[in-house]
Amino acid sequence: MIVFVQSLWSPAVFAEQKTFIIAGESALPPFSFENEAGELKGINIDLMEEIAKYNGVDFKYIPMRMEEAEKALSNGTIDAIVGSTYNTEKDNQFDFTQSYFTMSQSIIIPSKRKQDIHTLTDLRDSHVVLDHNTPVISTFLNMRNTNLTTVSNQYSGILTLLNNRADVFIGNKWTADFYLKKFRQEKNYIILDEVIEPADYTIAVKKGINRSF
């Protein structure tokens, strides 16, 4: 872990500032989520704490939806976003660290439909729910005969499926697995193996703030 942290950010990045405000998603377990005390926790936060410890600085974590975090980063309200997915459009606005995780979207369906749905092409005429920030949304906007519902986060998406308000949820397989186990629904729903549009998870900072990483 320390070797990875050293390659991520140099101590020179933190030379003039000791406390940084970091945004992360509040409903993306196990990567980032709010605990019962309202604190942001998860794998992403553990990573940031290693960076803070190595560089002798403090990070203050704020839960935000991704679109809110990107606006806050652009206007300088926050210093970084942990768990930002890289794409070429964002590259014009932000600087990104190297990827620390490759995220993929998966198809989550009721177990009773496992004989009917295997790939994306089987989703025609289905009611699909997905996070409106997911990279795969453009694929579904171009699919004919698909009823599409977008929600603000993965938690809302999985609840929409569990409450029978959609046939299919397209989401992060690790987050979906977390929530299915939390609600004791892992036997009633399955996560298909098909990987949809992988995306790199990174830490984003405002463009031009520092180019040493």
Q: Can you walk me through this structure?
A:
- By secondary structure, this protein is of the alpha/beta class.
- Helix content is 25%, strand content 31%.
- The strands form two sheets. Strands 1, 5, 6, 7, 8, 9, 10, 11, 12 and 13 form a ten-stranded mixed β-sheet that branches. It has a three-stranded antiparallel β-sheet with strand order 2-3-4, covered by helices on one side.
- Strand 3 (32-34) and strand 4 (40-41) form a beta hairpin.
Could you list the spans in which at least 5 consecutive residues all have pLDDT below 50?
1-8
CATH superfamily of the largest domain: Periplasmic binding protein-like II
What number is the mean pLDDT? 86
Give me the Rg, rounded: 18 Å
Per the CATH scheme, the topology name of the largest domain is D-Maltodextrin-Binding Protein, domain 2
Summarize the structure.
By secondary structure, this protein is α/β, with parallel strands linked by helices. It is 25% helix and 31% strand. It has helices at residues 2-8, 43-55, 66-75, 137-141, 154-162, 173-182; strands spanning 19-24, 27-28, 32-34, 40-41, 58-63, 80-85, 94-96, 101-110, 127-131, 147-151, 168-172, 189-191, 196-206.
